[in-house]
Amino acid sequence: MKERLQNVPLQPGVYMFKDREGLVVYVGKAKALRNRMRSYFQVAEKMHPKVRAMMKRVADFDFIVTKTEVEALILENNLIKAYQPRYNIDLRDDKTYPYIKVSIKEKFPRVSVAREERDRESRYFGPFTDVTTLRETLKILNSIFPLRSCKSFRFKPRACLNRDMEKCLAPCVGQISEEAYREMVNGLLNFLEGNPGEVLLSKENEMKAAAANLEYEKAARLRDQIRGLETITAQQQKVVFNASYNLDLIGLMMDEQESLVLVFKIRSGKIIAKDSFWLSRPINEDEPEMMEFFLKQYYNEQEDVPSEIVVSRLPTAQLLMESWLKEKTGIKVELRFPRRGEKKGMLNMVLENAAWLWEEKKNRDRQNHSILLQLSKDLRLEVIPQRIECYDISHLGGEETVGSMVVFTEGLAERKSYRRFKIKTEQNNDFASLAEVLQRRFKKSREENNPAFLPEPDLIIVDGGLGQVNAAKMVLDEIAADIPVFGLAKKNEAIFKPGVGEALVLPRRDEGLKLLQRMRDEAHRFAVEYNRKRRARKIRVSALDDINGIGEERKKQLLTHFGSVSKIRSASLEELGSVPGMNRLAAQNVYRHFRENENNS
User: Fold this and answer.
1) Domains plus CATH for the chain?
2) 217-275 pLDDT, tens per residue?
């Protein structure tokens, strides 16, 4: 590799270190590739222990030359997402609270509650620590901004009940133009961004006009809306600053293992949102490097980027980051570290909040570590398991057999790593199904280097007794996977080890047992949900299979239009004929099919 290094160009680009299996373990960017990469091949004693440990695994490298540093930065982001290298910083979104989501890129945007990973086509507001408060907030907002709430938009012959209840403007039946609807959306966004003044003034003028026209019911309704808006404003805008700042505040805290980043979004001088993120620290990155990594990852996903970003530590390549943000947004974006004044006080407030989150997380980690330590002793494991995977199989009489894999990291559920499997072989053999799931899971991680199945677990739990755990152990032996596996049976909550007939029974109040039970129950829930979903789909589709003239495309159109078979069954002949792709003969066949079945039953 040192010989190859001489041929690496002194140009901007991205480099990738790989292990003996060809798996990418680290991705980095450089202004001059050869100079940056050479720093990893110095005398081992001069390297930090974490870097030294990484380089022991590196057996090969690759690189991509770019024209500019900004291009290298963008490419580095993309490759880290694609490969999820073991020794790169890992950004974990700490959101457990719901947000208000507005799908602004759709023709007629929708308002909903969201907990999922953010996309680039929507705006998010929150978080809301109290779900009840969030639903009340949405109820008030919906009365003022009656936007659609249905999951998919399509034009229909008649509107749903929400229009009659004045909870929707019914764009699906053409009762509002796209321009007028967009104006309503902009009003909602303006309010959620912390600018309630225009909306409140408009509602007050409407209320006065209604009262002057003796429309007292309308005036009373508008009065209630104004009170609701004022309540929401009081809940959301608890901190107001002296000036109408529009900026993001970013505070960073870190120790040897990980870092916490807290982001406060300030719009019109008010805090409108808060985000928190945890970052791993694989090779002892310093604060400027951690801040640079975070800014790249965070603003690569953000549509709402202000012209000023106040940070607790300036990134390593400040000018490069500002150039990238300008190229991304089209506006000049400044990164600042204030040393005095109100912005310094605002930043201190962010760091104080981060300190509370930090202590809460560390206390939880200490408790989880203690539980995992005791569990490793009870199960006689060689290491404390950081990543535990649990598997279950679900079917109903051998139909639509599926498998589930749930993942707990450091004692906490990691839902983004959950996976599900449709069994392709024996449908009514739990042992064979479990073996198939494990074979496919480790094929993904070992043969395909699929980052969705990496890293491999420190411990495997299966839902079941000795039969299931022996089946799992057989697969692990075949692929030479030295991973301990245990089965947790519901009867007496007994823990089985492969090849050992006598089960381990822990006290019912044992915290380690409770952790295994949570994992087992979660794997069971995840598998059952998938099985039910597949059976429901099978029943739904098969109800249309025997109708002449109804192929796959027309089935899809009918289900998309009506939403369910029961609504297709109750539809009139004219409604069936109005579905795109249907003709009168096909509509008559569907109409007659369901009427004849009703008469026969």
Assistant:
1) 2-88 (3.40.1440.10), 99-236 (no CATH), 247-358 (3.30.420), 387-537 (3.30.420.340), 543-600 (1.10.150.20)
2) 888 877 877 777 776 665 454 444 557 788 999 999 998 888 999 998 888 777 777 78
Compute, in degrees rounded to 10, the torsion defined by CA atoms 569, 570, 573, 579.
-70
How many residues are recorded in the chain? Answer: 601
Task: Spell out the residues 6+ positions from residue 314 whose beta carbon is closer than 8 angstroms to its own.
Answer: 288, 291, 335, 337
DSSP classification of residue 542? H
Least confident of 140-154, 342-356, 380-394, 470-484: 140-154
Instruction: Indicate if the pLDDT at residue 96 is higher than 60.
Output: no
Contacts of 55 (CB under 8 A, 6+ apart): 17, 40, 41, 44, 47
- Which residue, chain included where needed, has tokens 């057999």? 401
Q: Which residues contact 422 (CB under 8 A, 6 or more apart)?
A: 400, 401, 402, 534
CA 449 to chain centre: 22
The span from the CA of 352 to the CA of 355, in Å, is 5
The CB-side HSE value for 309 (13 A sphere, CA atoms) comes to 28
